[in-house]
Fold these 2 entries.
Entry 1:
Amino acid sequence: MRFKLIFSITSLMLIICGVGMVIPGIADYINHGKETATPFFLAGSSTVLCGLIFRKLFKTDPEPLRPKEMFLTTTLIWLVFALFSSLPFYFSIYDMSFTDAFFESMSGLTTTGATIFTDLDTMDHGILLWRSLTQWFGGLGIIVVALMVLPSLHIGGMHFFTTESSEKSDKSAPKMAQTLKGIIYFFLLLSVACAICLWLAGMSIFDAINHAMTTISTGGFSTKDTSVGYFHNPAVEWIITFFMAVSGLPLIIGLLVVKRKWTTIKNDEQIKTYFWVVFWSVLLISTYRWHHASFEPLAFLDILRSTLFSIISVMTTTGYVTENYMLWGNFAMVFFLMLLMTGACTGSTSGGIKMFRYSVFIKTIKTRMKSLMQPHGVFVPRYGEKPINDDMLIGIMVFIGLYFFSAGILTLILSLFGLDLLTALSGTLTSLSNVGPALGHMIGPDKTFALLPDATKWILSFAMLLGRLEFITVIMVFFPYMWKRNI
């Protein structure tokens, strides 16, 4: 393990993280003066200084990373980012413990959206902007850094893209670099377009920018305690619903639209599955709620809008809230518990198991059933027009197995600290899937995670990292075989 090379790469990320803290510092200095801006400048200068010291101590010639070094470097970058991103929270005037600061930071960078803050409406602009920036950086920022910085060191930025998404590509590095640039431009375009639309719909410029960053990154941090429900604006809800839905699609779709590859988009199975699940989920929950509203015609459109918003928010793992869906009845609550595990499309910034894996899993089950009915027949599961190979199938089965195994173990551990079953289970699932709001009287959609014991916040922070890096990347660091000298 070439630690000098790993720490050298990490030091570059630290410097970028520190520079990013200047933005909310300037915003606070302009709006509130020196007192609230000082923590950002102090945290930023400390982070940049540490990055420069590490850069000096571990300066080395750039070399390609080996697979085991990619796993360690990716995990280390996320941990270091979360650690130093917590400094503005810890140094702020809001008297946060280090545990709370780290939890908020990890929640932001993993685009989870679980928060411990309770008075967002009265907070300074700087701290609110930093929360949004951590989610925006977490959504695509680290991939941007991997693309723009690492190739100059002759280290392929695609290494970090593949380990973060756990999907392999057979394309050449130059071709994938070009693709990633297109993804970045599409991500930026969506962010700007969302901010403009929200501003035109009645949000202030500050709120529009913050909500655009956390919508496109499918993060869900809001500038208000009651999230998007604060604005009581149907236009804002429809706009955010649309951009959440688009952000749940593979980011590569932007390039396909530019190249007018409509057939490719139309025939993509996970996109069709994604919209199919959204449609039937909204129809089912809306009908269920409408029945409890005695089928009042005037109530249906409001029910449809709030149901669509909530389901898209949970499925894309954004985590915005307009209503407390725990009040919709037991059936709706159990349904949302299942949605916490769903996720949107592979290739998006959302978390969860994702539609691609569900599609392959279901096709494999169908193929197995056919083979049982016709033992002498030859049946090959296909995704689109291509057969599903063994490597892909094993990878998906391993991911799903690790997801549910981790969910069970972490739920059991949380219960040791006195959490009830619903709180422990939903807290685990929302962290592993990077959704944000959970269920229960303590961490429900209208609550925060502030009342949880400190030990559980560290456990959930680990769960967020585990889910965001899709299990294997983190688990490999603890796998003894990875540390052998001959691999």
Note: Residues 145-172 have pLDDT under 50 and may be disordered.
Entry 2:
Amino acid sequence: MQYESQFISNFLSKKRFSYGIAVSLGTFIFCTIMSNLYWTQAFSISKHLAASPSLVLEKGEIWRLFTTSLIHSDIGHLLSNSLVLLGMGYYVSTYYGYWIYPLVSFLLGGVVNLIVLLTFKHDITLLGASGVAYFLWGFWLILYLNFSS
């Protein structure tokens, strides 16, 4: 008995959008600028970017769920998150478009941040794009497994 395998084209067979590298680099540059503003406290707005359970849940400052993804605690934190944002951001925006990355990714990253804040003590501050990174990995993995099988 002989089996023959045949490659069938699917959604992940070819790139759909050519701007993936520009989107991922642009997002990284924007996060770098926002982080630098946060580190230097250059503008008074920088104190309104980080999230904590007391600020988001008690004071209702919901925007912090999204702005905290744009800032990082130090250069090491920024660079570690940028590995995922650059790599997965490139793939997701190339195959699915800028609606998924960065727009939907940062919105759903805010949802992940909310879930994290619900488990934190009230005096802890949340910084970084880890919620976006977790969403990107999960999104890519689910769709890859769905389309490749």
Note: The longest helix spans residues 75-96.
